[in-house]
């Protein structure tokens, strides 16, 4: 059965993000680890279910059919130039907590659920929703059995997170090519939760930003706002402020590259079956050394077995409420 690639013209998430038919171009030159050749890649999205409901899913398709955004999209868009692929989960200025579903077949992007309800991040004044395009680097994993030497805490069992700080508001499922500028070590409820700071290579500011120090030079106040956002975003939910390693100081590009490569090694151990997968779905379509795989036909059947795309559901106006927090 053929699968139609759908992008709703309706607003998918809070914040006025309109989704139009889209094919997402990946890197012009791709070099996979251990591969001699470079090649171009393209990705598209398949939306299923109704946005702002429990059954909404955003699947990713490669050139030969459905793939896992966690396992099948290469980490590197250009390994020699250290350009990475980033999977966008949450567009800037939106509130719906969208994320790669690590425990579901094909790992689609879906809205996180807590106590049976869809999760939205609070607007903590003066921040509205997420203040960057937020997502993850594919083929990475923060192993919950691994104690991070920098933080002394275990990993959070997810791909490594990315804050893309360019001007363009992306869409869920976009695959961006980014250069890494630095990294923050968030300690979230006793788990290491690295936050990579990166910028789309096509952003007008990208040529001027090469390392974390350049961000303050060209975007004064932005890193301070980023640390503040992560520190207080759970306070409206009754939780304490988040803590950081390095007193919240962002580490530089080289440090970030080492952390990313470490999580890539952990992912390789996961997908090859060397590490305990727990409840994660590690089936891949294109990874040759994957311990568990999906055929193209099986991958297509996973998508067609889900609910048809429908119109977005109404969202509680309380999502737009301002919250005020006194910083400690």
Write structural notes for this entry.
The strands form six sheets. The protein has a five-stranded mixed β-barrel. A four-stranded antiparallel beta sheet has the order 3-4-5-6, with helices on one face. A hairpin with an 8-residue loop joins strand 9 (98-100) and strand 10. Helices cover 14% and strands 26% of the residues. The radius of gyration is 19 Å and the shape is globular. The chain has a single domain, classed as Inorganic pyrophosphatase (Inorganic Pyrophosphatase), CATH 3.90.80. Residues 1-39 have low confidence and may be disordered. The protein has helices at 212-218, 222-232, 253-271, 296-304; strands at 11-13, 17-18, 23-25, 42-48, 57-62, 65-67, 76-78, 83-90, 98-100, 109-111, 113-114, 117-118, 123-124, 133-136, 154-155, 161-164, 175-188, 191-200, 243-244, 322-323. The relative contact order is 0.18. The N and C termini lie far apart (57 Å). The protein contains four helices and 20 strands. By secondary structure, it is an alpha+beta fold. Pfam families: Pyrophosphatase (PF00719).
Write a compact overview of the structure shown.
The chain has 328 residues and is an alpha+beta fold.
Number of strands: 20
Number of folding domains? 1
Helix content: 10-25%
Question: How do the helices and strands follow one another from N- to C-terminus?
Answer: EEEEEEEEEEEEEEEEEEHHEHHE
CATH class: Alpha Beta
Radius of gyration: 19 Å
Overall pLDDT score = 89
Based on secondary structure, the structural category is alpha+beta
**Inertia-based shape:** globular
* Alpha carbon gap, first and last residue: 57 Å
- Remind me, CATH topology? Inorganic Pyrophosphatase
| Biggest sheet: strand arrangement | 8-14-16-18-17
Supply the number of helical segments: 4
> Largest sheet at a glance?
5 strands, mixed, barrel
Family: Belongs to the PPase family.
Keywords: Cytoplasm, Hydrolase, Magnesium, Metal-binding
Cofactor: Mg(2+)
Main location: cytoplasm
